[in-house]
Every structure is written in structure tokens, then in C-alpha cells.
């Protein structure tokens, strides 16, 4: 019976994972969209998460460590291996506490992302050989369950944007 326990738990949690993904729509807003329709990320850009439920959802604010690490990106360059971009874990937190905002049904919550080197919460994870080019990019909005999410009633789960082609330039 013990070998079946992880499988049973995974099957039982699957509806929760599906529901979590359906709670939000996630969209990347690139740094620039050119006249020919090509999308580019060169510095700061945004991720819009929209509450698709009929209830208020609490999410971590981005100014604290709980909220900073809720966004990540999977990147598949046209001519190279896939990689992930995640907020830097080298940031020093001088003031930090869990705080949330409430997103009403049908309303959006905007997250800021950056690949600029001068940003405290810049995204890291570029491979050494990657410099610039088109890639299939997908944003992932994730809040993992922990004592703080339980205590404060913060939404937990993961939702992703549709994959889209965006040209990315690695910061110098």
C-alpha cells in the first residue's frame, strides 16, 4: 500500500491544480511591440494576472520576499536549450514582512519584471552563450502553500501564460 500512497495523493490533488490554473489568466506585456508586431524584452516589463473567479483572491504584494518570488519565466530560444528566469536571490531585505492585496473578481494585479542589471529584483538565469534573439516565453505565477498563506488566507497554486514568441536581449 505504501508505494501507492504518493500516486493516490497526486490523483487527489490534481483537481486542485486544475482549479488553481483556472483561477487566473496570465499575460506578458513586453518592453516594446514594434510596428511589424514583433515583441521585445530589453529591460522592465510586466505580467498581468486577472482574477477569473467569482470571489476575492488574496495575493502577496511584490515589494516583499513573499511576493518577489511569485513570478518566473520559462524560455526556449529558437536556436538553443531552454532555461528559466527567476528573481535574484541575492537581494538584501532591510524591511520584510508578508503582506497581501485583494484582487476582486474580473480585476487584475500587475507584476513588474526586469532583466536590467541595476534592479534589485532582476531576473537571473541567462545561459553564458545566450545574448539576444527570439524565444518562446511563458510566465508562471506561483504561490506555494506555507504557514503564512494559511494564516492570512492567501491564494495558493500556479497559473501560466500562453507561450509566445518574444525577442529577448541579455543585459550586458
CATH class: Mainly Beta
Radius of gyration: 17 Å
Class based on secondary structure composition and strand pairing: alpha+beta
Counting DSSP E segments of at least 2 residues, the number of strands comes to 13
The fraction of residues assigned to DSSP E strands is 35-45%
> Which ranges are low-confidence, i.e. pLDDT below 50, for 5 or more consecutive residues?
12-18
Name the helix and strand elements from N-terminus to C-terminus, one letter apiece. Answer: HEEEEEHEEEEEEHEE
Overall tally of domains: 1
Tally of helical segments:
3
Residue share in helix: 10-25%
pLDDT averaged residue by residue: 88
Structure description:
23% of the residues are buried. This protein is of the alpha+beta class and 172 residues long. It has a single domain (2-169), classed as Sandwich (Immunoglobulin-like). The strands form 3 sheets. Strands 2, 3, 6, 7, 10, 11, 12 and 13 form an 8-stranded mixed β-sheet that branches. The protein has a 3-stranded antiparallel β-sheet with strand order 1-4-9. A hairpin with a 5-residue loop joins strand 6 and strand 7. The model is unreliable at 12-18 (pLDDT under 50). The protein is 17% helix and 41% strand. It is built from 3 helices and 13 strands. The longest helix is centred in the first third of the chain and has 19 residues, at 5-23. The chain is globular and about 45 Å long. The termini are far apart.
Amino acid at each position: 500500500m505504501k508505494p501507492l500512497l504518493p500516486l493516490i495523493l497526486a490523483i487527489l490533488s490534481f483537481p486542485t491544480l486544475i482549479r488553481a490554473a483556472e483561477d487566473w489568466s496570465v499575460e506578458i506585456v513586453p518592453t516594446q511591440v514594434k510596428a511589424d508586431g514583433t515583441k521585445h524584452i530589453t529591460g522592465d516589463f510586466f505580467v498581468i494576472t486577472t482574477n477569473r473567479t467569482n470571489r476575492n483572491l488574496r495575493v502577496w504584494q511584490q515589494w516583499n520576499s513573499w511576493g518577489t518570488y511569485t513570478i518566473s519565466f520559462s524560455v526556449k530560444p529558437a536556436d538553443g536549450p531552454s532555461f528559466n528566469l527567476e528573481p535574484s536571490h541575492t537581494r538584501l531585505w532591510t524591511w520584510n514582512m508578508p503582506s497581501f492585496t485583494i484582487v476582486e473578481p474580473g480585476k487584475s494585479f500587475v507584476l513588474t519584471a526586469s532583466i536590467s542589471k541595476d534592479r534589485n529584483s532582476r531576473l537571473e538565469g541567462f545561459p553564458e552563450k545566450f545574448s539576444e534573439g527570439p524565444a518562446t516565453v511563458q510566465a508562471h505565477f506561483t504561490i506555494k502553500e506555507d504557514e503564512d498563506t494559511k494564516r492570512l488566507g492567501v491564494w495558493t497554486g500556479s497559473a501560466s501564460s500562453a507561450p509566445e514568441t518574444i525577442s529577448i536581449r541579455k543585459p550586458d
